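I would like you to sit down with the pair of lines that follows and say whether C-alpha cells and residues agree.
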Amino acid sequence: QMIAPLRLSTGLPGSPAYAVFDDGVTAPVSLSATGSIRYNNTSKQLEQSIDGGPWAVLGTPAATTITTATALAVTQAMVFADSSGAAFAVTLASAVGVASGSRVTIKDSGGTASVNNITLTPTGGQTIDGAASYVMSVDYEAVTLVSDGANWFIV
C-alpha cells in the first residue's frame, strides 16, 4: 500500500528534493527544471513527468539512448549506450552534484562493447571504485554506479 507524502520539499531546479512520508521515511526525488509530480488517485502512487514527457511511477528512471560521447545530466539515471558505430566515452554527472545514494545505470545496448569499448569517466578528479575511469568491454554489459556524494561506486 502506498503511503502519501505529508510534504514534498523542493529547492531550486536541479537540486535535490525529498518526499517525507507519514511513516517517517524520507525519499529523495529528482526534478528537472520542468519536472512535475502528481498523486494518481486511481493507482494510489506518486508519478513524475520530466520535461513534459509521459507520466511514470516516481522513481522510475527515464531511459536515454546515446551513440556518441556524452556528458550525462544529473537527471539521466538509465542510459542505453550503443557503441556499434564506434567506441566512445561517457562523462558521469558530478558525484558531488547529486544526492548521496543517487544511481545511474549504463547498458551496452548495441552488444559491441568488446569491439567498441564504452569508457565511463567521472568529472573533476572524482573516481569510480578508486580508479580514474571504468571501461565497459563485455558485450551487453550493464554497470550501475552509486554516488556517495564525493565519488562513484559500482554496485
Summary: The longest strand covers residues 103-108.
